[in-house]
Amino acid sequence: MEVPIRILIIGMHDKIGGVETFLMNYYRNIDRNKVQFDFISIYDKLCFEDEILQLGGKVYKIPSEKKHPVKYYKMLKNIIKDGRYRIVHINMLSAANSIPIIVAKKCNVKNIIIHSHNTNTPKGCMRKILDFVSRPILKKGTEFWACSEKAGKWLFGPKSNFQIINNAIDYEVFKKDEIKREKIRKELNIENKIVLGNIGRFSYQKNQEFLLEVFEKVHNINKNTKLILVGEGELEKKLREKAKLLNIDKEVIFYGTTNHVEEILNCFDIFLLPSRFEGLPVTGIEAQAVGNICLFSSNISQEVKISENCYFIELNEEHWTNLIIKIVQKNKVKENNNINQAYNIKSASKLLEKKYFDLNKIKVAEVLYGLGNGGVETVLKNYLNTKKIDVSIITQTIDSVDTKEFFEKKLKMKIYEVGKKKNLIKYTKRLRKIYKNNRFDIVHCHMTLGNWYPNFIASISGIEFRISHSHFAFERETFKSVIYKKLGMIFSNKYMACSKDAAIYLFGKDYKKAFILKNKININKFIFSEDTRNKKREELNIKIDDIIIGNIGRMIQQKNQEFIVDIFKKLHTDNRNFKLLLIGSGELKEKLIKKIEDYNLKADVIILENRNDINELLMAMDIFVFPSIFEGLGIAVVEAQLSGLQCFISEYVPREAIIYDDRCNIVSIENQEKWISKIYSYAACRRSRSVDMEKARKAGYSLEDGRDDLINYYGNLQNYKENNNEIK
User: Fold this and answer.
1) What residues does each domain of the chain span?
2) What DSSP designation does 85 have?
3) How far is CA 148 from CA 115, 163, 278, 281, 446, in A?
4) pLDDT digits (tens, 9 = 90+) for 438-490
5) Is 5-164 in CATH node 3.40.50.2000?
6) What dihedral do alpha carbons 683, 685, 690, 696 form, nearest 10°?
7) What is the pTM assigned to this prediction?
């Protein structure tokens, strides 16, 4: 059974308010098998605590940060560490309460959500000072959310980037209900009254004093009116006294708090909210949903409007009085048939779930020399075609636009081109910025000897896991290679290789610590088809009786394509039916083209850029040559064998790449004549292209049998961290 991700919620109070309503609306409607909320409480009894526990949440009791700041800090820190929270969601009415941000940052929480629910600082000089002083701390957050545009700009700044999370409600609960309306009106003895209502804390912000003054004038004009104030707070005594002073105390009902807001809203005719400031009031959404006419102060963001039953008025008693009387006289009630569905909790909760899931994904950076169509890129395409993790590719160069588009558009990966390390300062700055902005869990370097530097930058950037991946084995050692290996071991804390030979080369006596990730492929794609062969040859303008010698790989010194051109010249001299097909690109491409022209072979050599139809091109070939100077595995050789080709490979290709002994010929690159004679011999007696695919599966090359190997490896790393809280 899948374990739900747990979100630590901070900022909920002991009394019902907008934040509390917002959180519980989402908590009740998210899939709690996938996402669970846990809450921090500084109160004896948290608002909705019993329901939270019933829904599977946890409530942590800690002292108040005001009374016991040190104890608050220590206990919160322990809760975050023990709970291994990757997401802490901090709900803020101002910047004054920033201690949770500091604690979460100290605990290296991957995702610190700061959520703005207000548009001004609550009353009090000290509060305003604290708010001003604490604002720089907000930058320690990683995600910035707000209930409205106005709330976001107020807390984070007018030019800041933040996401709007709608204060959504359950439209099924908050709908017009005549039975509920008559029931509660009867209980309150107001059956035939015109009822004005307000819901909110009795506070300076909510401005109920202004409402009493307006109602006094309204009631003097129309005696058939009643005012219901729902809530409690520090100003309740003062409000009751003011109602007596205005001689309307018998016409004002102080209802207290309720867990069934929908019932009291149904008994209202007009909902009044004269707040001095607001983020985006949930009660305003709820009031519209049940069909109330709503009067909001002009200080409230117009994003609260989800129906046509809304009016926004400046805080002027006369203006409010006149409009209320006008509405009462005209009985101007409209049906809400077109309520904005963006505030429907059923759909909004799914969006929030997705946001949490996206944030909780393991974030991985795959670091490459160049993004083309080589073996590393094939591995990434095959293993990382998943939505389970968030993958970015960091590459020095982009060698293939097609490959870039494939990763970006099909696999939805971010691509960062950082340039070569010639300008080390510029390269380092770019790399650090990418690491910082993305907050990667894992940096996975595929540069073999070059792994050490990106992993060094990752280590000083605080990235927990740094994988050094060996993709080749080179027999000749240099002083430089020895140093780079040692540095790689220092700055990496996890090892990976494409083969045992590659692991031994890079990690030496520690090669057993390396996870061997074979370059698996979709083997069924390579089953030979005569029809495919003929179609591809026709496409390439190749005759049926032509003998096609092929190679796939980056055009670099390692792959040794110059050697291929040299032997092809001799083969072609004796047999004009020989054709050469080179697939790839790279720094030596122009040099190869010139050599082909110098040898007068241009008419019989086909050079193709990086392709996505490699399986079909292999079927069009007759012979595969692979004279690499060094290799980690050589996935192209595996693919060529699966398509039934006879392969001629150098002695530097690891034996792990050989699936079928009768399909592979190992020939020394020191002996060109031997390559020529063996290729001639085979060309004279070609045989069937069918191969035993089961043998390839048993050798461990079937992607179907291990598609999730890399994903699981990443996941196990994260689980190890969460279970141990440190890297061994």
Assistant:
1) 5-164, 178-343, 362-516, 525-703
2) -
3) 10, 9, 9, 10, 44
4) 999 999 999 999 999 999 999 999 999 999 999 887 767 889 999 999 999 99
5) yes
6) -70
7) 0.74
